[in-house]
Amino acid sequence: MRTIAILALSFVGGGLAHGDHGGSQKPMVDENADWMTKHMAEEHHIAEFDASSFFSLHDFDSDGRWEPEEILRTYGLFDDSNKHILKSRRDEITRQLLALLDTDSSGYVTRDEFVMFINEGKRLPDMATGPGHHGDDEYEYEIHHWEKYHDENTKLEDLTHPEDIEHFKKHEQMEDEEERIEAMNRIQIIEDNIPGKFRRGG
């Protein structure tokens, strides 16, 4: 099964969704790179990405929006390395990021809002919280469930716990995003990025 396979690869190679848990090599990034680029290299070992894939990787509950907790987790504020940061500072970071991203004042950020923000040439700011480690809780969860569901013939329908089903669905979505990024990197010119009037037959 594809989902089980990506879990195995994540333990061997460091994984798409985690920091340096394995042996995969982090991409080298310029010290003057923006925070998003540094975060993707440090935490996810990804050098090339687009707005949609960045959003998906940090939509931790896969509901199509970033709630305040997901924004804080993206910035590593639930990791032990940031346990010293006061709640008042966490609230301030949440307010600042929602002010930048939440254009309709809904209290959360949609994919469209985030993509529009990036397409305007903007980037998530460095909030002085480090590279944004998401923590090891999910990694430990995966190890436990990888041992439980190690049979490569296991199918999603075979899982019974709702948490397991959601967890493996999330990994399948993440794998799809990784494959999409890799496919984009193989194409020198991405037609969707070319204004319509310059496209063939446009």
TrEMBL record:
Specify the EF-hand domain's residue ranges: 89-124
SUPFAM superfamilies in the record, alphabetically? EF-hand (SSF47473)
**Hey, what's the signal peptide range on this chain?**
1-17
InterPro entries hit by this protein: EF-hand-dom_pair (IPR011992), EF_Hand_1_Ca_BS (IPR018247), EF_hand_dom (IPR002048), Nucleobindin (IPR040250)
Q: Write down the PROSITE patterns for this protein, in alphabetical order.
A: EF_HAND_1 (PS00018), EF_HAND_2 (PS50222)
* GO terms, molecular function: calcium ion binding
Q: Which keywords does this chain's UniProt record carry?
A: Calcium, Signal
Chaperone as UniProt keyword = no
Its Gene Ontology cellular component terms are: endoplasmic reticulum-Golgi intermediate compartment
User: Is Nucleotide-binding among the key words of this record?
Assistant: no
Output the superkingdom of the source species: Eukaryota
Q: What is this protein called?
A: EF-hand domain-containing protein
Organism expressing this protein natively: Pseudomassariella vexata
